[in-house]
Design a protein that fits this description.
It contains 18 helices and 26 strands. It has 604 residues and is an alpha/beta fold. The radius of gyration is 26 Å and the shape is globular. It binds 5-amino-5-deoxy-1-O-phosphono-D-mannitol.
Length: 604
């Protein structure tokens, strides 16, 4: 997820591009760049860091009389956030400039082909191949035809905006990454979302997948990639800018919950092929005696699920440690250990310190990180990126589900490397996830069940969350979500632990959330529910869609789509995220910025 802005018209382009980038900064903020057409050709400025750095650098440039330009704010996926990797990217002759959102899956193949033809690459990005490819096909100032020919070779996703030194037209194209075209009076805009252009025009067209628009300041044509001209509806935008940045959702947290189908799709992209799991790192697993997973908060919960995956799939013993505890207990780590550090931000001080401790003792290290180029990503021996896109809400949601998926994928990858067969059912169920999550979210929206439960349960001051097996960490995560954003005290336990103490708390003021999929512990969970009911406790139960028994014990049920055991934590956590969200929101709490918390905990 990055941000694109483009402008052509009668006004000075730079201030428009810059204000658009500032509006899009929530989509990506590790580096940015602008390219404008001057009398000397295409000139650009790029900077690492926030847009303010770019603005600073632009103040020494005289781009006042430039009326066409493209700009980008980046959320790195391929290549660290550096000035060289920042967009725009150019072909070798300086004729073509592009800004791109999305992932070019076959970029390595294309890059090799172009290098063999004598092209020199300057960045580590997948996007740069687009500039060189378009240049290869650019003839007679026909930018449209060059873009179409280039895109014929591309696999993956793109929101793409292209300008050239000699063509009067700009071209934008879309597959998978959103693009909107703004129509003004003798001026045109392109952006990843309308927030960037709303102060200039409210008349917009949305591109669909495999469509492109060719335009100058006065005219445009929307076509499909085969060249057929399409009639496009023009929309009049009525939303405020704030509503739009959040995609129409009230909070970033809610938006990020709803982004999970796309985030999961991006995490899975390119990982499963020919009934196999693919990663491009190579650890000598035969020398590994133990895996230690270390993390904090939500990432620690996904680590707990990872333990089940690695022990089941690799038969290697796994320990999971709070990063803050690990570093201070002089852990017995050797070069035969693989230490996996999980962190959304890649900057959490305790996780970083635990990683350094493990490295100093000779362990091999693997990072599971969302933010490309973050400190943890740079310091580990091997890194796997989540590709979940920026997570802005303090409460982690899509990072959790994508971490769990990556842990499952890595455990299967290790299994293959250890010479064992991977169960194709697990791979099939993984691939079904984006659709299942999307359907489930639709269903929750339609029935309003979770919202209604939230209204009924917001009056309580305490709650227990109970689950077994792989769903015990989901209980912990559900309880953390509730406490951190609604300030309701909540705890997660393995359901069977209840009778060893927590059951003493049960009365009419202690609601209990059960995670009750129909797995091998189902009967036992039913008995636990009976015990709560007998003591007057209120039950909310997450049940399989075809469950018929739990409804005798409680009317407060949330139906979750059925799947296999490995996948159920990913599906089960989503209603718990929503439950916490709706409870907090109905209590009037600023969900994205709950009290005392920060998104990235860079202090001990
Ligand atoms: O960026 P990290 O994954 O390292 O962050 C770890 C925790 O600080 C984080 O998960 C925190 O617990 C969240 N607020 C949970 O929603």
């Amino acid at each position: 997820m990055c941000g694109i802005v483009g402008y052509i018209g009668k006004k000075s382009a730079c201030p428009i591009l810059l204000s658009g980038l500032k509006r899009l900064e929530y989509r990506g903020y590790d580096s940015s760049g602008i390219c404008v057409k001057t009398k000397f050709g295409l000139e650009y400025v790029k900077r690492k860091g926030r847009i303010l750095e770019l603005e600073d650098a632009l103040s020494s440039k005289n781009f006042k009389n430039c009326f066409v330009g493209i700009a980008h704010t980046r959320w790195a996926t391929h290549g660290e956030p550096t000035e060289v990797n920042a967009h725009p990217h150019f072909d070798s002759t300086g004729e073509i400039a592009i800004v791109h959102n999305g992932i070019i899956e076959n970029y390595m193949t294309l890059k090799k082909m172009l290098i063999a033809e004598g092209i020199k690459f300057v960045s580590e990005t997948d996007s740069e191949v687009l500039a060189h490819l378009i240049s290869k096909f650019y003839e007679d100032c026909n930018l449209e035809s060059a873009v179409v020919k280039a895109l014929e070779l591309v696999e993956g996703t793109f929101g793409l905006l292209v300008m050239s030194k000699t063509s009067e037209k700009l071209v934008a194209a879309r597959r998978g990454s959103p693009l909107v075209v703004g129509i003004g009076e003798d001026e045109m805009f392109v952006s990843s979302d309308v927030s960037a252009i709303l102060e200039y025009t409210r008349r917009v067209m949305y591109l669909n997948d495999d469509e492109l628009v060719v335009f100058d300041a006065h005219s445009y044509a929307v076509k499909n990639l085969k060249g057929a001209v399409l009639g496009k509806k023009i929309h009049e935008i009525k939303w405020s800018i704030d509503q739009i940045e959040k995609g129409g959702y009230k909070h970033f947290m809610l938006k990020e919950i709803y982004e999970q189908p796309t985030a999961i799709e991006n995490t899975l992209r390119g990982r499963i092929k020919d009934n196999k799991v693919w990663f491009d790192f190579n650890i000598d697993l035969f020398g590994i005696r133990r895996i230690i997973i270390t993390a904090c908060g939500t990432s620690w919960h996904s680590a707990l699920i990872g333990k089940y995956y690695f022990e089941r799939n690799c038969e290697i013993p796994v320990e999971v440690d709070y990063a803050s505890e690990f570093r201070y207990r002089n852990p017995l780590v050797t070069e035969n250990d693989l230490v996996i550090a999980i962190s959304q931000s890649g900057e959490t001080a305790d996780t970083l310190a635990a990683l350094r401790e493990a490295k100093s003792k000779g362990a091999k290290t693997l990072g599971l990180v969302n933010v490309v180029g973050s400190t943890i990503a740079r310091e580990v021996d091997y890194v796997v990126y989540l590709h979940a896109g920026p997570e802005i809400g303090v409460a982690s949601t899509k990072a959790f589900t994508t971490q769990v998926i990556d842990l499952l994928l890595i455990s299967l990858f290790f299994r293959q490397r250890l010479g064992k067969k991977v169960d194709s059912l697990v791979l099939e169920e993984l691939q079904l996830l984006p659709e299942k999550v999307s359907l489930m979210l639709e269903q929750f929206e339609k029935t309003g069940t979770i919202k209604k439960l939230a209204e009924d349960f917001k009056k309580y001051s305490n709650a227990l969350y109970l689950g077994r097996g792989m769903n015990f960490p989901v209980a912990l995560e559900g309880a953390l979500k509730l406490k951190e954003i609604s300030y309701i005290h909540s705890e997660g336990y393995p359901a069977a632990e209840m009778k060893h103490g927590p059951i003493a708390l049960i009365d009419k003021d202690m609601p209990v959330v059960f995670i009750a999929p129909q797995d091998h512990t189902y009967e036992k969970i039913l008995s636990n529910m009976e015990e709560i009911k007998a003591r007057g406790g209120e039950i909310i139960a997450l049940i399989d869609e075809n469950d018929s028994l739990v409804s005798h014990l409680t009317k407060n049920t949330i139906s979750v789509m059925s799947s296999i055991e490995e996948i159920s934590p990913i599906l089960d956590v989503i209603p718990l995220q929503l439950l916490a969200y709706y409870i907090a929101d109905s209590k009037g709490i600023d969900v994205d910025k709950p009290r005392n918390l920060a998104k990235s905990v860079t202090v001990e």
